[in-house]
Specification:
Blueprint (H helix, E strand, L loop, with lengths): L1 E6 L11 E7 L2 E4 L22 H22 L2 E7 L14 H8 L10 H16 L12
Parallel strand pairs: 1-4
Antiparallel strand pairs: 1-2, 2-3
């Protein structure tokens, strides 16, 4: 049976990855009970500071892929589409918004502006500077 997966990327400390897996039943999309006790547990985030470490982020991505395969086995489904609430790429340098964000704007749906690669680097440096000065993890700049 075909399944459709939605993932809201979350990396908060010890927070379970928010995920929804649905199947079509006649003309309705039915969510599967991924939170049931017998279902495999989703990976847990390591926190915003840990997101600065590429190895940690890669490990989390691998754990997520493994989790999706476990869900497929548990529910006897095959994931046909996976929608991830995260940009696939940074915005193009010099542009105001990504095309997808402009399309959402046109429909009156608000969303964060995805930074460019260089803006991502600046954000990472601000976070590192904040931590180096002894700033609290709960007060990180650009925490979202």
């Amino acid at each position: 049976m075909n399944a459709f997966v939605g993932i809201d990327v979350a990396f908060a400390k010890k927070k379970r990855l928010p995920i929804s897996v649905c199947v079509w039943n006649t003309n309705r999309l039915i969510p599967l009970p991924v939170a049931e006790r017998r279902a495999p547990p989703p990976p847990r985030g390591a926190g915003n500071v840990a997101s600065l470490d590429n190895t940690t982020v890669s490990k989390f991505a691998d754990e997520t892929a493994t989790y999706l395969r476990q869900l497929e086995t548990h529910f006897c489904v095959s994931s046909r589409r996976v929608a991830i609430d995260a940009p696939s790429d940074p915005k193009i340098y010099g542009s105001q918004r990504r095309k997808a964000e402009e399309a959402l704007d046109a429909r009156g749906i608000s969303c964060f502006t995805t930074p460019s690669s260089s803006e991502f680097e600046v954000i990472g440096q601000k976070v590192r500077d904040h931590l180096r000065r002894g700033g609290a993890e709960s007060r990180l700049p650009h925490a979202n």
